[in-house]
Write a structure and sequence with these properties.
Helix 15 packs parallel to helix 17 (335-345). The chain folds into three domains: 5-65, lambda repressor-like DNA-binding domains (434 Repressor (Amino-terminal Domain)); 68-181, Tetratricopeptide repeat domain (Serine Threonine Protein Phosphatase 5, Tetratricopeptide repeat); 210-362, Serine Threonine Protein Phosphatase 5, Tetratricopeptide repeat, CATH 1.25.40. It is elongated, with a radius of gyration of 30 Å. Helices cover 68% and strands 0% of the residues. By secondary structure, it is mainly alpha-helical.
Length: 369
């Protein structure tokens, strides 16, 4: 067990941007007393330690520096989390309240307890649990300086608070929080759902800008995820699974076109998917299949470059101001160039590249037949 009270007083005072004089004034002691505490020449009384812990927003254990107790906190948090995951909410809440009495200003305990009440309130539609969740999570935000989990941030905590307000029927408050913390459109879908589902005189048209942004985000993220799968499987030595991932993505992209025979912004990415399928098939020794996929890539790329579009026209589920909605990609200036780059990036594709050049030479002047 290691005590580091003097160092912690100095460190936490500076972290809270307080001078020794300001801390002395807040505690009702002399400047000399603060100086002695930080030098380890004297020890503050227990009541003053409690006051400092409250002022700094930490538990007394953290301030005093009980490392053994900190390990105990981690065990308590894990026990609460396990009860939450097994949906033993009654026991989880009882354990949380017991821990909060001992560690009222420890971020891990306060946040985990707030999460327990959030799930208990959501699944049981219990207003008291949701109110308790909001209070705990708001307190957790004030303790964020203690957080070491990169997946937890003020944005993520505010989302939980907002959803609790929505479940309580306090829609305006919930929406206000979601909009304030809608970093990079992360809550577009939830905001759109709330507007579209609200029945108290709220026009569903308010959902439109969030709907179109959220839908574009779904397509973008799905593309990234399936490309990640394709690359993962390829590097793991399972090219057939890589090809399956790409073909799944092709189906998704083409399914959102209103007119399957008209050009859409998804066709450029689709051409690249077919080209990669050709490469994978060729490496698996499926020559005819590879040629077929390359023909698909050529036809798709040729059609796109003849009438390129980065607008949301010919796309399902687009509402509102679709005229100004523009899609961007990093595939290159044209679909044909993007496919050719794929074929030249890796060794061993000489036959496919020769077929690609042959297809281009066979193309009549003027482009489309």
């Amino acid at each position: 067990m290691k005590l580091s009270l003097s160092q912690n007083i100095c460190k936490l005072r500076k972290a809270n941007h307080l001078t020794q004089e300001q801390l002395a004034e807040a505690l009702g002691v002399t400047f000399a007393a603060i100086s002695k505490w930080e030098r380890g020449a004297a020890t503050p009384e227990l009541t003053l330690i409690a006051q400092m812990a409250d002022l700094f927003g930490v538990s007394m254990d953290v301030l005093v520096g009980f490392e053994v107790h900190n390990n105990h906190i981690a065990a308590v948090e894990e026990r609460i989390h396990n009860l939450q995951r097994s949906k033993q909410y009654g026991d989880a809440m009882a354990e949380s309240e017991s821990a909060l009495l001992r560690y009222p200003n420890d971020f891990r305990i306060v946040y985990r307890a707030g999460e327990v009440y959030a799930f208990a309130g959501m699944e049981g539609k219990a207003e008291p649990h949701l109110r308790r969740c909001i209070a705990l999570l708001e307190h957790a935000i004030s303790l964020l300086s203690q957080n070491t989990d990169p997946e937890i941030s003020e944005v993520s905590i505010q989302s939980q608070i907002a959803q609790s307000y929505l479940l309580l029927g306090e829609v305006e408050t919930g929406l206000e929080i979601l909009k304030q913390y809608n970093v990079n459109g992360v809550y577009d879908g939830l905001i759109a759902l709330t507007y579209a589902a609200e029945s108290h005189g709220v026009s569903p048209k308010l959902a439109e800008p969030y709907l179109i942004h959220a839908f574009a985000g779904v397509i973008t993220e799905s593309t990234r995820v399936m490309m990640a799968y394709a690359n993962y499987y390829q590097k793991m030595g399972t090219p057939a699974a890589s090809r399956d991932a790409l073909l799944w993505l092709v189906q998704l992209l083409q399914s959102i076109k209103i007119d399957p025979n008209a050009t859409g912004f998804v066709d450029k990415a689709t051409a690249c998917c077919y080209a990669q399928c050709a490469i994978l098939s060729y490496k698996m020794g499926e020559t005819e299949t590879a040629q077929s996929y390359l023909h698909h890539a050529f036809q798709m790329a040729k059609a796109f470059d003849h009438a390129p579009t980065y607008r949301m026209e010919n796309t399902k589920f687009c509402v509102g101001d679709t005229e100004h909605a523009t899609v961007y990609d990093d595939l290159g200036e044209s679909a044909m160039a993007a496919v050719e780059q794929q074929l030249t990036e890796e060794d061993g594709n000489d036959a496919l590249l020769a077929l690609w050049k042959h297809l281009i030479r066979q193309e009549p002047a003027g482009g489309m037949k």
